[in-house]
Design a protein that fits this description.
mainly alpha, elongated
């Protein structure tokens, strides 16, 4: 019974890697232009969000400063 398990393991691994290879062939990889545009958009929105949070923080600090004094 233990021998049967050992004989099935390599076949299952081979099948797994064949499946992975088949799935990788289905992937549509983006070109450099698309990657550059999407990276630029992510950086832009990240910076914009950071600036927005900094402005909100400054307004809240100023408002709390008026209330506490």
């Amino acid at each position: 019974m233990a021998e049967e398990k050992n004989q099935e393991a390599p076949a299952r691994k081979t099948g797994f890697f064949k499946g992975v290879k088949a799935e990788f062939k289905k992937i549509i990889w983006p070109n450099k232009g698309t990657v550059a545009k999407e990276t630029g958009a992510v950086v832009f929105f990240g910076v914009a969000l950071g600036v927005l949070i900094a402005i909100i923080d400054a307004v809240v600090k100023f408002g709390l400063g008026l209330i506490i004094k």
